Amino acid sequence: MNPHKLTLKVFLLLIVVFLSAEVSFPKQLTGGRLALVVDERLAALRRTPQLNGALVRRLSRGRKVAIRGSKTTPEGVVFLLVNVTTRTHGWIQREAVASPSRAGDDQRLFDLIKASYGFDQIVRARIFLDHFPRSPLRPKVLLLLGATAQAQASELSRDAAKRLFDTTTHAPDFTYYLNYSGLDRYNRQRVTFVFDRSTRSFHYDGAAWRELLRRYPKAPEALEARQRLADLAQLDP
Asked: Hey, where are the domains in the chain?
């Protein structure tokens, strides 16, 4: 083979590998204190620290940013200057993000979790548990996560029954329920449901409550977690 052609092929292959690595493994954020988007309703990244500033992009819940500075508007709204990627930065409203290294942000996020409902509550609880490992509020969040998941099980059971009323194929009925697309977003949040064939309904598997008892057996929330798990044991098919 022509050595020049071989060199060109190797060069092109290296470019493909490099570009793939850039896409799969984005560079670590630098330039400031780490924070996470927790309230996507306020997560408009703007070119200037103003509510009517030009929009750069809207950030999704759970997105990491690096805080570089802050500025308060005449109306008292605090904006943070943040890096989103190595090339993208802008201003975002303070209440849109929470930082594990900032005192009081765990309480602020917990208050937001309590004010949320259903799946939104689960996602924000997962952000808390994944990024605030030293917060004393973790037992409360675990207890709340489990309670919300169990409440969502009833809604999932009703929705699945409506959508899966016709299962006239050779596959067992229960497999339709356990493959129900409504479970997918919960699965991505590491929330798992068990299906009771006799009642054709879902119930939460209790993982958050078991973690609470394993990690925080002396916490005040442990007593309720034990009772919740005892109640689940009565539901197991």
From this structure: 33-98, 118-235
Bridge pairing between strands 33-37 and 78-83 = unpaired
Question: C-alpha angle 208/214/206, rounded to 5°?
Answer: 25
Q: Which of 30-34, 81-85, 110-114 has the lowest mean pLDDT?
A: 30-34
The confidence band for 10, taking pLDDT boundaries of 50, 70 and 90, is very low
- ∠ CA 93-61-194, nearest 5°, is 150
Q: Is residue 196 over pLDDT 80?
A: yes
Tell me what the mean pLDDT of segment 23-45 comes to.
77
Helices and strands (H and E) in the chain: how many: 8, 9
**Amino acid found at 7:** T
Exposed, middle or buried by CB within 10 Å (0-12, 13-18, 19+), for 41?
exposed
Q: Return d(Cα 138, Cα 132) in angstroms, integer.
A: 8
In whole angstroms, how far apart are CA 26 and each of 20, 77, 84? 10, 31, 11
* CATH number given to 33-98: 2.30.30.40
